Amino acid sequence: MINLKNRIKKARKHARLTQPQLAELIGVSHRTLTSYEKDASKVTIKISQKIASECKVNEIWLLTGKGEMLDDNNDNNVTKVIIEHQDIVKHFKDPERAKDINKRLIEIEAANEELYNKVDSYIQGIHDAAKVFSTPKKKYQEIILKKKKTG
User: Fold this and answer.
1) Per mean pLDDT, which range of 21-35, 58-72, 79-93, 113-127 is the poorest?
2) CB atoms within 10 A of CB 55
3) Residue 85 maps to a domain
4) Full domain range(s) for residue 56
5) Is residue 17 part of a domain?
6) Does the chain have fewer CB atoms within 10 Å around its N or its C terminus?
7) Model pLDDT, residue 24
């Protein structure tokens, strides 16, 4: 059976979080989280609950090592989506801004689906335009010729 410090590290890696990311999510310093992964004797119940919650692992497993790491009550598809979303956000130059933008999109979708669809179309248009501007001139000319030939 692995000890608490190793379960904390395993949970963090399962969630695909770095030490600084998890530390921020649970409200401790990076140094404090590092110390938990080296010597977990000072981890409080409240902190272990936060770690389990943020890493989407079974709290009992995290504290005791008993049972499965993933809670049977967790929807693994939801966990997978959350982890994929976290991976996407990591690619932004400004992850905090990316999170804020995503929160706004969620609020728009919840409030008005028609407006959400308009925002989605607008973003798709900008995305398509960005592709055109980033496509080398020769490649762009080939695309135009193909479109003219096909209709």
Assistant:
1) 79-93
2) 25
3) no
4) 4-64
5) yes
6) C
7) 95
Q: Residue 56 and residue 102: Cα distance in Å, rounded?
A: 20
Question: How far, CA to CA in Å, does 130 sit from each of 97, 127, 144?
Answer: 20, 5, 16
What is the C-alpha to C-alpha distance for residues 33 and 26, in angstroms, rounded to an integer? 9
* One domain for residues 53 and 101: no
Number of domains in the chain: 2
Whole-structure pTM value: 0.48
Q: Is there a contact between 68 and 11 (Cβ–Cβ < 8 Å)?
A: no
Residues 54 and 98 in one domain: no
Q: Alpha-carbon distance 125 to 61, whole Å?
A: 47
pLDDT at 115: 86
Tokens 């080939």 belong to residue: 142
Q: Which of 45, 64, 83 is the last residue of a domain?
A: 64
* Structural domain includes residue 106: yes
Structure token digits, residue 92? 């932004």
Helix (H, G, I), strand (E, B) or coil at 18: coil
> What type of residue is 45?
I
